[in-house]
Amino acid sequence: MRKFGLIGYPLGHSFSGTYFRDKFRQEQIADCVYSNYEIDSVLGLRDVLKDPELEGLNVTIPYKESVIPFLQKKDPVVSAIGACNCIRITEGILTGYNTDVIGFEKSLIEKLTDKDRYALILGTGGSSKAVAWVLQKKGIQFLFVSRKAAGTPDVSGKPTGIPGLVMYSDLNREMMQKYTLIINTTPLGMFPETGTSADIPYAFAGPDHYFFDLVYNPARTLFLEKGARAGARIKNGADMLAVQAEASWEIWNSQS
User: Which among 26, 31, 40, 77 is placed 20 to 30 Å from 156, CA to CA?
Assistant: First the structure.
């Protein structure tokens, strides 16, 4: 039996298992299973990897960065951005990939316009790095937005040191008018904490804005709801999930 799965914590919000189980059923793939591995520490990955039939893993919050030391090989994107959300396991060798960049780029362009030249990336975790990589590729200037100032130690005790970092309290009317593309990469608003949203000045948003939320459960987060009320274009992460899931499947089954 070929085994695949998802590591993260918590995983109650995730549709990945349902997606792949539906895929296996619809395509009559009988020799594969997909499981959720909810681990409260990245060190729990060691136990997950003890299964000799395991061939691939998806990686979600909060382990997209901390999983990297477990990898023996990394594709160029993972090396460049320092975040991994897909692992291929071949003869005990773990190779890291980032399919978030594929999913985000293909999903973003549906409602992107030529006016969206400046972006705010809400959050500084692993997903934000994939978003930044895509925006840089497209020539869209961006700022990271965080609750902490640059140089403030993160949970590991290291200073953030992220270039182009501003705090939520720095956002004002002028910045909101300039940075019309706003991308939420945080788990705020994700099920079951659906009553939360990023603390940005929504009163300054309007029809020129594009609110993109990487969260897909619920389909319309409070962040997207506030954007819609302002007349902004909105999009959730459901399409991104589907694209990156299929990209993971291709990686796991590639002969190269």
Answer: 77
Sheet holding 141-146, edge to edge: 165-167, 141-146, 118-122, 181-184, 210-213, 233-235
Mind listing the pLDDT tens digit for each residue in 40-70? 999 999 999 999 999 999 999 899 999 999 9
With a threshold of 0.70, does the pTM exceed it?
yes
Helix 126-137 / helix 100-108 crossing angle, nearest 10 deg: 50
Look at residues 236, 168, 234 and name the one whose alpha carbon lies nearest to residue 201.
168
Query: How many CA atoms, within 13 angstroms, populate the side-chain half-sphere of residue 135?
Result: 22
* Structural domains for the chain: 2-98 (3.40.50.10860), 102-236 (3.40.50.720)
Q: What whole-number distance in Å separates Cα of residue 25 and Cα of residue 118?
A: 42
